[in-house]
């Protein structure tokens, strides 16, 4: 089995597709962000990487707050739209028919139709080159009632999707469960 | 449609499952990390969140280098093992039967059996609380030859998997393609 070097590239599978929200000049805007990860557990934090020229970044800087919304497969078209159009040119809330609500964090707009919504306050901003890496402390999580089972979020009801860049940019549904985590590895003797 | 507040929690779907590699005291070790994301494109960078007490963190601090390996569904057992056991207690390379190789970045061990391997140099380390968020510049990417199509990485051959925490920790395969990215959103008129 050989290996081929393809140069320095950001080839991580999979990435989530999230809609990052910010109020810009007092109006809610949403940007599709796949470069989003968890950064810390105690306290809960998330990181998002945003290009320096993005319209939403202006709002995040102004307010030092933002939201992360996890869309379901029912919102794939709207999520893609929020990735290819700029809030400087179009009102994405109107175009996508989003119902916006707010929680406890000011200027962190949340999308009713997305099953999971995180309210965040900026704790760090790193200028890395093409992108700013923004670390936010998660202040509250909202989950659509129909996506809960026994009061807990249920991925089979959330029905999120994933983003893949190679060989061609596409969105994929989640597939079959292949193993229990923190469990299947016990089969290895050591 | 109502919403329920479930408190501040790191609920992002999906997370990748990666094996982060580091030489610790001159020996390769691998840690399963789901909290891994892309941080920058120019130059390419990745972020990984690692708990402060982790054995691998010692090696990353020593050398200021690390690797990110993307396992396939064939390595789910080994990946899980690397998440539930510590390199302080067990030689994970031996236990998992990994074939280790090195590229151009010293002390960044790569796993032959994983279809995608990134070599990284640390550019930032943020102490956020329970975790350190480590940003690494990607210096080279290796892809297993049998996972290339026309010289490009092909996700259908890589066969990565994803990590889900809610409602119960599990690994899932990738499912069907539901839409082309940077394309399906054009159906929305604005």
List keywords for this structure.
mainly beta; seven-stranded antiparallel beta sheet; 190 residues; homodimer
| Oligomeric state, counting identical vs distinct chains | homodimer
What's the pLDDT, averaged over the residues of chain A?
96
Strand content of chain A: over 45%
Report the end-to-end length of chain A measured between terminal Cα atoms. 26 Å
Largest interface in this structure: A-B, 116 and 116 residues
The stretches of 5 or more residues of chain A where confidence is low (pLDDT under 50) are none
Describe the structure.
- The structure is a homodimer of 190-residue chains.
- Chain A has a seven-stranded antiparallel sheet with strand order 4-3-7-10-11-6-5. Chain A has a three-stranded antiparallel sheet with strand order 2-14-15, with no helix packed on it. In chain A, strands 8-9 form a two-stranded antiparallel sheet.
- Chain A is built from four helices and 15 strands.
- With 190 residues, chain A is mainly beta.
- The model of chain A has no long low-confidence stretch (mean pLDDT 96).
- At the A-B interface, strand 1, strand 2, strand 5, strand 6 and helix 2 of A face strand 1, strand 2, strand 5, strand 6 and helix 2 of B.
- Strand 11 of chain A pairs antiparallel with strand 1 (3-5) of chain B, so a sheet runs across the interface.
């Amino acid at each position: 089995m050989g290996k081929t070097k393809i140069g320095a590239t950001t080839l991580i599978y999979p990435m989530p597709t999230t809609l990052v929200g910010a109020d810009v000049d007092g109006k809610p805007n949403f940007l599709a962000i796949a470069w989003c990860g968890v950064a810390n557990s105690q306290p809960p934090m998330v990181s998002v990487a945003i290009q320096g020229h993005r319209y939403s970044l202006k709002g995040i800087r102004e307010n030092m707050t933002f939201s992360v919304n996890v869309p379901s497969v029912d919102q794939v078209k709207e999520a893609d739209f929020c990735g290819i159009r700029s809030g400087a040119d179009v009102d994405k809330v109107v175009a996508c028919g989003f119902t916006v609500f707010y929680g406890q964090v000011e200027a962190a707009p949340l999308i009713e139709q997305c099953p999971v919504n995180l309210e965040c306050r900026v704790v760090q901003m790193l200028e890395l080159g093409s992108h700013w890496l923004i670390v936010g402390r998660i202040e509250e999580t909202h989950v659509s009632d129909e996506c809960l089972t026994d009061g807990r979020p249920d991925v089979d009801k959330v029905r999120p999707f994933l983003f893949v860049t190679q060989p061609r940019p596409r969105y994929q549904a989640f597939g079959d469960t292949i193993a229990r985590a923190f469990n299947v590895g016990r089969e290895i003797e050591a």
